[in-house]
Model the fold of this input.
Amino acid sequence: MAICAMAAAGRLRAVKVNKMAAKAVKQEYPKRHDGRGWEDLRKMEAKVGVIPRADGSAMFRIGHTVAYAAVYGPRDLHPKFMQNPETGILRCRYNMMPFSGHGERVRPGTSRRSQEISMLMSKALLPVLDLKEYPKSVVDVFVELPETDAGTRCAGITAAAMALADAGLMMKDMVTSLSMGHYNGKIMADIDGYEDCDVGISDIPIAYIPTLDKFSLLQLDGEVPKEDLLKLLTLAKKKAMDIYKVQQQALKDKFAEPKVK
Amino acid sequence: MSADTIHVKERDIVVPGEVIAEGMGFLPSKGLYREGAKIHAGRLGMIALEGKVIKLIPLTGAYIPKLNDKLIGKIIDVLMTGWRIETRSPYSAVLGLKDATMEFIPRSADLTQYYALGEFVLCKVITVTSQKLIDVTMKGPGLKKLKDGRLVEVNPHKVPRIIGKEGSMVLMIKNATGCTISVGQNGWIWVEGPSPEQEIQAVNAIKKVEEEAHLPGLTERIKAFLEEITGKPVEIPTVSAAPEGAEIAHEAPAEEQHEHRERRPPYGHMRHGGRRAPPRSQGE
Done:
């Protein structure tokens, strides 16, 4: 999210903070600008089955970041040389919509950034998936972001995990993801666009698999001392469980709801 | 031995990773897995408890062909020695010449005369390899080319409910609407009736079963629905009376009760010197 084109609404600034250079002149950030506690998450909302033609789909909203995920497959894979006779493969596509950010229009189409995040997402999701039962096939995951305020890859992974479960794939567990922050010795959860771009808080996106107690994504943009990172990861696990509960509830709501007219 | 605890009830919806039970006293079946002493869900589904065995009934997901499944397929290609059939799964199936028809197919015959592109067939899976190469056959009771009717698409996991216990649900819809209905395990259903109106009635009834498949009292509700749309009294076919909820049993019986006639394949006689194979053409 170093190249993030977003800042909190109404606080748009042209200057992006170079996080490494900002170290020397760190501004004061005594409390969070939106009134949250350091460990609080933004308001979350999740819904499963939002895209009727997809095999599985989900929406995940955290603050002003919204991710839609659609899963198609397992289905026939072409071109044929991509087929793996041992297992099915997972393809992800991450896409920010043209007017999703707060800065300039996001130009449509793939970019270096979106390609990288697409790859990260499939690597974060693969450890829980068992595609051995579907050799030579493909599972496609499309993540679209109509509104962004930092933490897009995390919202994308969270939504994609729900969509994959909705598609009825064999999964060991859900994957749950959020971005942590570190600034002036302070650890914080779920940083937003203003904190990421304007304050220059170190951004640490993680993806966590609760049952396996493992991280499947860990990135760092900025600096963080080792002890603080370990503390931060412990907090991240705790916070991830909050998101996990939202995911579980959304999936249960879709199927438990009686539809008798 | 530690006390066994179970965290779910019958018909609960579980999501991947959820802890279903603790202790070695329970047995996980397909779709569940054991991690240490705990049993977790391995996919999204509904719980069915059968004594010590915990079962997971999937609610969504792609259809994957299994051996002996009867399914409705679409001819998508004509091969050198057979037809390629779309099965509504990640894998297409092959219908070989040998399994295609009772008729004798001469060499150099135009195979589209037997099954043309775009036609639908009710066929049976006879081979599934580890690499998911699938062979189907048209030889067997009830297997046929499907003509004059319409195709209904349903969730393949709801098919057992549409068929009902020992075929009772589909039989009820057939009797009430006067249509013939062939149900494929892949969730494609062929409805053919004397009039479009009757076909639509059957389609609506099937859609209703699909929508309400997971709710109790299904048969009664469908009976009331059929009576409402046809304006005639409908009888629930009497198969062995079973308590409500027993419908979850996912045994898929023969979906169509066809009159079984002994029919000897004609080439059976030919093999024993009755008739010779036609002479090979000159060019070979």
About this structure: The domain at 70-146 of chain B is CATH 2.40.50.140 (OB fold (Dihydrolipoamide Acetyltransferase, E2P)). Chain B touches chain A at residues 13, 15-18, 31, 33, 35, 40, 42-46, 58-62, 64, 90-92, 130-132, 157, 211-212, 214-215, 221 (CB under 8 Å).
